[in-house]
Specification:
Elements: E1 2-7, H1 16-24, E2 31-37, H2 39-50, E3 58-62, E4 68-75, H3 76-85, H4 90-105, H5 113-128
Parallel strand pairs: 1-2, 2-4
Antiparallel strand pairs: 3-4
Helix pairs in contact: 3-4, 4-5
Length: 141
């Protein structure tokens, strides 16, 4: 799978190559855009598209283009905050959010406990492709 990473934040993306490696192992011929944005931009998008007045961590927008899956927007500051709160690395959180957004582009959802279970299982299967553990480090290191 091809992934294009776009940084619209004022922070350097130290994890971009690892995210590209993750999605290189995903079998899909389409391209996906992963866009990192600031919290104020995410607040504006979440308010506009979902009518929710808070900055969320990730938003996915499917594409109508034949060769594109769509766009995934990740709020870098939310990812950093969640990584701290969940006691794992920023890489792990960004990888999880990227995969979560990807699964939404494929049509998965988590409105019910059953849907959430299926989606979490699929996410873990993809994260296992690059052998990421819950701390965002390679297993065995």
């Amino acid at each position: 799978m091809k992934i294009q990473i776009h940084n619209q934040t004022n922070q350097r993306l130290t994890f971009a190559s690892e995210i590209k490696k993750l999605f290189a192992k995903v079998e899909n011929s389409k391209t996906m855009h992963l866009i990192f944005i600031e919290e104020d931009a995410m607040l504006e998008m979440n308010n506009y598209y979902r009518h929710l007045d808070y900055a969320t961590d990730v938003l996915s927008f499917p594409s109508d283009e034949e060769d594109s899956l769509g766009d995934i927007f990740i709020c870098r500051s939310k990812a950093k905050e969640q990584a701290h709160n969940y006691y794992h690395s920023l890489l792990q959180e960004v990888a999880f959010l990227s995969v979560h957004g990807y699964l939404h582009l494929l049509g998965y959802d988590h409105q019910t406990p059953q849907e959430e279970q299926v989606m979490m299982q699929k996410a873990q299967e993809i994260l296992n492709l690059v052998n990421l553990d819950k701390k965002g480090e390679k297993n065995g290191n």
